[in-house]
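sorry for the late reply, my laptop died twice this morning and i had to redo everyting from scratch. anyway the thing you sent over, i finally got around to it. pasting the sequence first so we're on the same page, its 389 residues, then the predicted structure underneath. double check i copied it right bc i was rushing
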Amino acid sequence: MTVSKADRINSLLTTTGTCVSIYMPTQTAGPETRQNPIRFKNLLSQTQEKLIQTGWQKPEIADLLQPVLELDRNEFWQHQQQGLAIFIAPNLFQFYQLPESFPEQVIISTHFQLKPLIPRVLNDQQFFLLALSQNQVRFFQGSRYAIEEIQLPDSAPTSLAEALKYDDPEEQLQAHTANPNPAAGQSMIYHGQGVGTTDNKDQIRRFLQNVNRGLDVFLERGIMADERLPLVLAGVEYLVSMYQRVSQYSHLLEPAVMGNPEHTPIEELHQQAWEIVMDYFEQEQHQTLTRYHELIGSQAVGTSADLEEIVKAAYYGRVDSLFIASGEKHLGQFDPKTNQVTTQEQSQSQGQDLLNFATIHTLLNSGRVYVHELAEMPDHRQAVAILRY
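ok and here's the structure:
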């Protein structure tokens, strides 16, 4: 059974105990790729040493690391991006090849070190793309680096002709084959009712309403209802405009990819859609940060720049939006039984990264996490948050 991305991420967020996180930069091509297995073996040696220091025995370590060792093949190293992240725990093994370089590090803690994966994996900035034309309707889910087509539900028509085939007989399309020779293939020509023109507004409107109702299964009430991702349209201007009027999806974006998507390669549709979505996410983040400053200015209850308070609030689901400083670490422990946070010196090997802890529990409780350079953080704080209550 295929495991969904959401389930994989949830397993990373919820796993506790002995959690091993390994990050390394990778070379993508040429002779430099020979560095990849060497760096990999060195990091595994560090992992073994750290596990021994925490009390693990060599046979246990061998069992734990066996799935990782199986990655060490020439074919694997020849198909890398810029960074590799590996996560290992008893009964869990995941790795991510990402278009972003990471500093080498091995972290063993009670939770996985997941901060570096924001926004590339955890806040993957995903979106939906609906490519509309009278002859073809296609639906996609994408992110910054990838896009894949999703099969439409049976209730969503894939063309104008399909949408209208059950209409009143007076309004049905009359069709004949342009080439009656089956061996040569057949193409359909439709007459009457202005099909294929912008004059046929009533039929087109019904077509788009049927598409919208079918997609509603995905977007509002169905299997993707918890995603609530922004939706970008691709199509000629009159189809985009009409669909925007019939759709009730609250995350439908007004900017669209203009032009007939039938004539546009999917790679180009993806790139144009991402440019629209990137602006949307940047605006969303800016609005959230503006809201934080406004709440601070009004001295209203609902924000915090105190890391200990943020850690507690994140654990209990009170963090709506969390901003954390990239590359920063703050070691400590949170004890839910006493509701106490203790901090430790950075030189100590024990303890967990409280910024990472706050990140994990914010995401587990459906909050948003944004990463900035420390110099760009409000008052140069390591973390600030907007609280739910």
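The chain has ten helices and 18 strands.
thats about all i looked at so far, will dig more tmrw
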